[in-house]
Write a structure and sequence with these properties.
Blueprint: H1 2-11, E1 34-38, H2 45-54, E2 58-63, E3 77-80, E4 95-100, H3 106-116, E5 120-126, H4 158-163, H5 169-183, E6 188-193, E7 196-197, H6 208-215, E8 218-222, E9 228-229, E10 232-233, H7 234-246, E11 251-255, E12 262-263, H8 264-275, E13 280-284, H9 286-291, H10 316-320, H11 328-340, H12 344-347, H13 356-370
Parallel strand pairs: 1-2, 1-4, 2-3, 4-5, 5-6, 6-11, 7-10, 8-13
Antiparallel strand pairs: 9-12
Helix pairs in contact: 2-7, 3-5, 6-8, 8-11
């Protein structure tokens, strides 16, 4: 259930509102590509758009036109449609690369592929490390994948996935990967991100920590400082995806970070330093948190508790292909600034992390036990 909590948060993330953009340095030496982005207005999509434009590419997006209208640059060609059967805008067109960002359902890949096959040179599919069957240490791209056990994967919908408690999220992503490879054999690039964080992330999966640390006082810190964590700034993921497309890469790559292992203690200390805050971390062991029903991933974001294999994913293949990471202090500072730009009612209701009242209650119980 702990891992399912993470999957539910990840799959159910609402798309973010606009944020300030970091300066992107163009590299005019790259060959201009015609890039079609399916989606493009959610979390990482706008970063892909801006970065691709900065490097001289021509960008087309395809979406319903309902999320953040007017946000994308005027240079972007915006096609309106719906993955649920309204794909006419894609017909009769040719692109060098298609980047499929929001897909969970195999039927979405199949229906788009039927139109795009023969009209794009490469298909980039954004998957997830949630496709893996087990949460073991050091999972690489060849680890066993989850299996779909339903009646007909092509009849699954977002509603049926939600009704199933998001248990189908990983298996359907596996089938979506296979669908992409079936239609574009030898031309498919599959990227499996881990926890994506930073500005525009409306799930608060990482945002909780900069917000909480900025508030100061006694902060409930989970487990042991050396407990491993992994995460990747959405901007780093987006920019690397574009570079991979430029290089014509294919195959499967885990994509999370940072480059060197880090513990939850190092992450929290890094955020503290970045924000020039002065909280006091109170480390509470996992058994006590479990007894108090304080859950990893949801109540204590980024931290995996006993299922820490998912935070030790092997990213050596991605590193060998130039995956890079900005500093934690940049991610933390930008995330906090973005969150503080949200409406007050949004700031008052975080979507992940323990509430202040519950945190105080757990800390009081911990101190009582230790006294």
């Amino acid at each position: 259930m702990r891992r399912r909590c993470f999957i539910k948060i990840a799959a159910g993330t609402a798309f973010a509102a606009s944020a300030g953009w970091t300066t992107l340095l163009a590299e005019k030496s790259v060959k201009p590509l015609r890039i079609l982005i399916l989606g493009g207005t959610g979390f990482t999509g706008p970063y892909q758009v801006r970065y691709a434009l900065s490097r001289g590419h021509k960008v087309t997006t395809f979406n319903r036109g309902k999320s953040h209208p007017g946000e994308l640059p005027s240079e972007v060609e915006q096609l309106i449609g719906d993955r649920n059967g309204q794909l006419d805008a894609l017909k009769g067109r040719t692109w060098d690369v298609v980047i499929d960002n929001p897909t969970t359902l195999p039927v979405w890949v199949r229906d788009a592929a039927q139109i795009l096959k023969g009209h794009v040179d490469r298909y980039v599919f954004t998957s997830t490390i949630s496709v893996y069957q087990d949460s073991k240490t050091g999972l690489d791209e060849n680890a066993p994948l989850q299996s779909y056990e339903g009646a007909d994967p092509y009849k699954e919908t977002l509603e049926s996935m939600k009704a199933n408690g998001f248990k189908l999220y990983g298996p359907l992503k596996v089938l979506s990967e296979k669908e992409a490879e079936k239609w574009f054999p030898g031309k498919t690039l599959i990227i499996r991100p881990g926890l994506i964080v930073g500005p525009r992330d409306e799930s608060d999966r990482f945002t909780y920590w900069p917000v909480r640390i900025d508030r100061g006082g006694e902060v409930l810190a989970p487990g042991k400082p050396e407990d491993s964590v992994q995460y990747i700034d959405g901007r780093d993921l987006a920019e690397w995806t574009i570079r991979m497309a430029e290089n014509g890469e294919t195959g499967i790559y885990n994509a999370t970070g940072p480059a060197s292992p880090i513990g939850i203690g190092g992450m929290l200390d890094g955020i503290k330093t970045a924000l020039k805050s002065n909280p006091r971390f109170i480390w509470v062991d996992e058994k006590f948190l479990t007894d108090k029903k304080v859950q990893p991933w949801s109540d204590m974001p980024v931290w995996a508790g006993a299922e820490d294999g998912i935070t030790r994913t092997n990213i050596s293949r991605a590193l060998s292909k130039g995956l890079t990471f900005r500093a934690l202090d940049e991610t933390a500072g930008d995330t906090l600034a973005w969150f503080k730009s949200r409406p007050q009612d949004r700031q008052a209701h975080m979507k992940a992390g323990i509430t202040p009242e519950r945190e105080a209650e757990v800390l009081a119980a911990w101190k009582k036990q230790k006294s």
